Amino acid sequence: MISQFTHLISGRHQINRLISAILFLLISPFAFSQADFPKQKPITFIVATGPGSSTDSMARLVAAKLNENLGWNVVVENKLGASGNIACVYVKRSNPDGYSVLVHSVSFAINPSIYKNAGYDAIADFEPVALGASSPNVIGLNVALPVNNLKELVAYGKKEKLSYASSGIGTTTHLTIERFKNMTNSDFVHAPYQPAQAVGATVAGHTQISSTSMPPTVQFIKAGKLKALAVTSASRSSALPDVPTMAEQGFPEFDDTTWFGFWVASKTPSEIVNKLNAEINRAIETKDVKEKLTGLGLDTKSLSPNEFKQYLKSEVPKWAKSVKESGATAD
Q1: Alpha-carbon Rg for the chain in angstroms
Q2: DSSP string computed for 20-35
Q3: Domain count, the chain
Q4: Is residue 127 helix, strand or coil?
Q5: 126-141 and 209-213 as β-strands: parallel, antiparallel, unpaired?
Q6: What is the average per-residue pLDDT within 172-186?
Q7: Do residues 100 and 264 make contact, with C-beta atoms less than 8 angstroms apart?
Q8: Which domain holds residue 231?
Q9: Whether residue 275 is found in the same domain as residue 130
Q10: Is the full-model pTM beyond 0.90?
């Protein structure tokens, strides 16, 4: 009886040891991967826009700095389609290990409202990593237009038929003007362009007004080929310090920016998210990277993952409301 009891106890101990060993084998590689991140394989920045775009430029600057300063192996892959939705779905479905990082613009927050099925939830399907850079949009005019401020633009638009070029349907550049139109009972005709072509359309006189992000616009303003009427942010831009905000001209409801950020798949361990956040923020604030971003008209602001998440929770409903009011749709 005693020997049988001893054998039973011993058997249970062996089973417990076996279970412990299995759990260790299951858990330890994941724990090791977190501690060793990112030495196991290259990190891929999945860029939702094409080469040469502001999103792409920022991604490549940060990737190069991470490779240079830390010896990380960061590669950039442009995955185009459906205004960035293809890239979002790709990263959403990737392993939650930090090796696939989405790099996208404010369209990330807008697309779930403007598409019937964007394929992702901006809050639930991702872990926010870092807000990379941002810039106000610029309301510009053809230099021949006899208008010097927003109220004069509204008055002039009551007498003459005016059209405006934006960076595309559902972009912040489009939605800002649509809100402004509704607020002032104006009737500007929308002419969507690719971002790089929108400002050129106004410079050439194909439209009288442009609503575009800062990077493609600053050079035309400084060259005297485009009249800058207002920036859409709450405060003036360091790139165009002499251009007043919309709020300064009597429209305090506007604080619209084009911003760019980094995300990983939902359920990526917080240790990895925090490590990516710290190093991306450090790279962006490096003097040479910051200077290059400033040269593109972009300002930087280092946020923690939680701060970026809270920012997204305000941006997603804000733009959803704008999309609904404008009636804009990409389908």
Answers
A1: 25
A2: HHHHHHHHHHHHHHHH
A3: 2
A4: strand
A5: antiparallel
A6: 94
A7: yes
A8: 136-249
A9: yes
A10: no
